Amino acid sequence: MTYLAVSIGSETVDAAVEQIREAKKAGAEMLELRTDYLAGCDVQKVRSVLAAGRKTGLPVIVTCRDAAQGGAAELSVEQRAQLLAEAIAAGADFVDCEFDNFSGDTRDKVKAALANRPKAGLILSAHDFAGPFADPAKLYNEIIRAELWAIPKVVYKANHINDCFAAIDVLLHGDREAIVLCMGASGLITRVLSKKLGGFATFASLDASCATAPGQLSIGELKGLYRWDEIGESTEVFGVIGSPIGHSMSPAVFNACFEAGEIGALYLPLLVEGEKPSFDEFMNNVIVRGGGGGTGGGLGFGGFSVTIPHKTHALDFVNGAGEFVEPLAVTIGAVNTLKIGFGGIVSGYNTDYAGARDALTAAMGIGPHDLHNVKVAVVGAGGAARAVVAGLADVGARLTIYNRTISKARDLAGEFKCRYAALPDLATLDARVLINCTSIGMSPDADATPVPSEFIKKDMVVFDTVYNPLETRLLKESRAAGAKCISGVEMFIRQAMAQYKIFIGAEPDEDVMRAAVCERLG
Q1: Cβ contact 289:318 at 8 Å
Q2: What is the per-residue DSSP string for 70-120?
Q3: Which residue in 23, 155, 385, 515 has the most C-beta neighbors within 10 A?
């Protein structure tokens, strides 16, 4: 069993007792009492907090962390050793002592206390808040050699997601219970997948304000968003690769669909910073550790959504491996979906064009080929516009690209054999469909619009690919003019549905997906 341990760090006994009650109510499977947070910590305060923890019936770890390894108080080695020994005597299930300090008098006191309570356990820990240990596996083995029956705990800050794989390898290849985690935003993958990899515990907070380590997730996030209770050895893992990634709606959307469909899968946000070499390193790290689904052992990644800035990197990666790329993705020059098959075979797709086209045709009540010869004005000439133009050109729509930089509009139009014009030419707009593919009007600049309201006509269909806010100024003014409006949420949902089918091989519940998006956007 991998325990979901909630860390309790409060300055007063009363506040700690209240946190303990809340943790139990929230579904904690274990408690970590960070006694170094208690102001004026002494034996009596430790006993009081421990008594409250034991009343919950949950296993309890008592920790009195050294300030050099993240502790909240400057207590001497002797004081901390005495507090741990007293905690063992008072009924703690485990105590956590820093490996660096486990020698001499500290070792003697803790081992003497443990000898009187054979059922109590010892965690020997090592932390580095600056960056990765030089060799986590070597450190893990050193802890085991020092105390064969102790649970090794190796925790360090991941400065990049690729720093996490050395920690993951310790759990993949270890032969005993261990706690191996990475701190920081890049370390999320280790905190969630600890259960799949058979770690002894992962640590959560009650909420962000109660976190006792950088990047520590809340118990609500782990049990709700990341489906902690459903994670097992055979869980298939998916995720969205990007930088930044914290704003992504995809984890909430896909995990809600997995939950509704009772699918043994999990979807994570994956902060992959840097350019193509970092992206390639991440992909290779995943593949060599067992990509291709949960039943294949190892990490069990089945695929990824890909967002800024890695869509071209994803295309180059699949091309470089000599594996399948959807032809229209090659034409667009970007891949936003990667599927990992058995043996680590990677396929690349682009669902952005289909998402935009399907959102448009669904709103208009027509099929894709009914867009043939329909006049469409596309505002913008960037990555979003490229996907939209490719999808519409593929079915023969009559496209005109409008852009502030006329050379970019000309280049894109030349590739797809359509017309182009400068933004001021929107004044003479003659199109049935208008699509905004710029970021103008996106929150927080929600008062901006790419197209003046006087250019909107009653019989138009106006599609804004921006989805935050749900109704942009362009859509509000278009609705007021009597035009038919399509929100960028529709494009997001349609492209996500196409990704889900690539990942799982079945259609998702559209209503579940839509509800998750709307809840996420408030």
Answers
A1: no
A2: T-SS---HHHHHHHHHHHHHTT-SEEEEEGGG-SHHHHHHHHHHHHH-TT-
A3: 23
For the chain, domains (ranges, CATH) are: 3-231 (3.20.20.70), 239-349 (3.40.50.10860), 353-486 (3.40.50.720)
Q: What are the residue numbers of the active site?
A: 311
pTM above the 0.85 mark?
yes
d(CA 239, CA 224): 16
Question: Quick one: the chain helix, strand, coil %, rounded to 5?
Answer: 45, 20, 35
Could you count the other beta carbons within 10 Å of the beta carbon of residue 260? 15
* Mode of pairing for the β-strands spanning 346-349 and 337-340: antiparallel
Torsion of CA 88, 94, 100, 104, to 10 degrees: 30
How far apart CA 254 and CA 508 sit, in angstroms, is: 9
For 496, the enclosing helix (H) or strand (E) is helix 488-504
137: tokens are 């596996």
User: Per the structure block, which two tokens stand in for 159?
Assistant: 């400065």
